[in-house]
Design goal:
about 300 residues; alpha/beta; about 20% strand
Length: about 300
Amino acid sequence: MIDILLSTYNGTEFLEDQVSSLFSQNCKNWTLLVRDDGSTDETVATLGRLCSRSRTRLTADAENLGPCRSFERLLKQSSAPYCMFCDQDDVWLPDKIEKSLALMHEMERRWGNDTPILIHSDLQVVDRHLQPLAPSFWRHQGIEPERRETFNRLLVQNVVTGCTVMINAPLRQIALPFAAETLMHDWWLALTAAAFGRIGRLNEPTVLYRQHGGNEVGAKRWGPRLIWRRLNRWSSEVEEATGRTQRQAAAFNRRFGTQLTEDQREVLAFFTGAEHHHYLSNARGVLRHRLFKAGWLRTLGLIASL
C-alpha cells in the first residue's frame, strides 16, 4: 500500500537506527525503495546488510543528484497508492505510518480519492545521540504551519518537512516531473497540493529529527542569536534566496499556469515580477497578497529583498 522512499548519501553512521525504526512500525503494509546518491563511504554495504529483506528494493549508482533529484527519481519508480519520504539520519516513531495513513484516509473520504493530498507532521529535535533538544520543531523554528499552508504563503516559505510527508498517487501524478528550478522535493509537493488539492497536518511529532552538524537541512533555533548572525550577512544571502524562490514560483507558473485559479495566477504574477517594481509597490503587494513569512522580521526581509 505504501512506498517508503529513502535517499542516502554518506550516511552509514546513522542508517541502522533509521532502518530499524522502519521495521518497528506498527503498520507493516509498506515497501522500502532505497536509492544511494553516489556515497563514498560504507553506506551501500550497510544498506545491503540492513535492507536484504523481501520488502526492500535498493538502487545504487555513482551519479550524485542531490536530495531533491534523488527523491524525484525514487518517486518516479513508485506505483503505490501512497508514498512517504525518509531521511537517512532520523528515527521514525512507531506509529508514524499508522497515524499518517489514518489522516490520509480521513481526508480522502472527505475530499475524494482523486484529490491530491499531502500529510505532514511536527518533529522532535534531538542531538546525534537522540537526546532531546526541543519537543516541537515547529515551535523551535517559530513556524506556525496552521497559518502557512495556503498557496500564497507557501510560495515564499516552505513549512512542510519532507521526512514527515505522506502523499497519495494523485499528487504524485500531477507533481511529476519536478521543474528544473525546484528547490526541494517537499516544497514542490506542498505547492502542488496547496494549488490543486489539500494539505493535512498531524499536530504532533512523528520523527526524531537528528541534528549532527552534517544535515542537508537542519533545525536552527529562531531567536536573537540567529537573527544577529543572519543580519551580518543579510543582504546578499537574502536576496539570493528570494531570487531562487521567485525562479521556483515562475517555473510553477509555466508548468501549471493554465490550470490555476485567477487569484493564484495574480499572486504568481506579482511575486515573480516584483524585481521590476518600486519598493513601496512591492510592500503593498506583499500586504495585499498576504505573502507573509513566519515572523515579521522574516517578512520584512522578504520585502527588502524583492
